[in-house]
């Protein structure tokens, strides 16, 4: 993975932690993320309007990939809201971010036999995941299933599965998009794609949000009280992943991009402890250190 890709992913990590903090602190509900997509796509529309004409050249396969990715993104947002409503961000955020490292690696191993991961790369990813699993423990002897078999962890795993889905789909879709057009910069195409994905996610989330009375009430309540924060979060969400999609164009394997995105894990832990007052433990800090060690191992192995 190139230095430019690494810088792009690093910048996206700070934005990612920011909007997750807003989602946890302001309103950990699907309504918040639905409104975020709504306002975010409206705000960014002027930026991508000049490139909308490029969509006429997109093949049917692109639209299929986009639709599936948008559905995964909607599932991710809904699951993330459930995780934050049920548990601490310093526990659920690392799980939701670390598990896709292993999931995408395994999926890539199956889907792309010619681009298999080395032993060192796989070890680095496993260290990242192991560190995330240490976070909810008080002591090593505390390892037991009920630390993870709960609503918060279940939602976090669901979010991780959705992340794996849209990561693999987007890697194919963005390359297909680039191959189908002759105009537009890498960044403009990334912005166009993420705007389309955000709009597609909104089309999935909004009907679900309106189909039940309590969900409609939640949407209107969040809209009245927190529309500004939701709008800011929406813009950050779209820009965050636009940077990741841009970075994917400079990586030969999507697993590397997904792995380096886990720089946001220690940032998320710090945010939970320092800004939200969540419990600080030695195991949590140890798990964070393991995650950083796994990232360093990955970086050294790729010669960055």
Automatic annotation (TrEMBL):
Key words of the record: Membrane, Transmembrane, Transmembrane helix
Membrane keyword on record: yes
Matching InterPro entries: EmrE-like
Protein name stated in the entry: EamA domain-containing protein
Segments passing through the bilayer: 33-55, 62-85, 109-135, 147-169, 189-208, 229-248, 254-276, 283-300
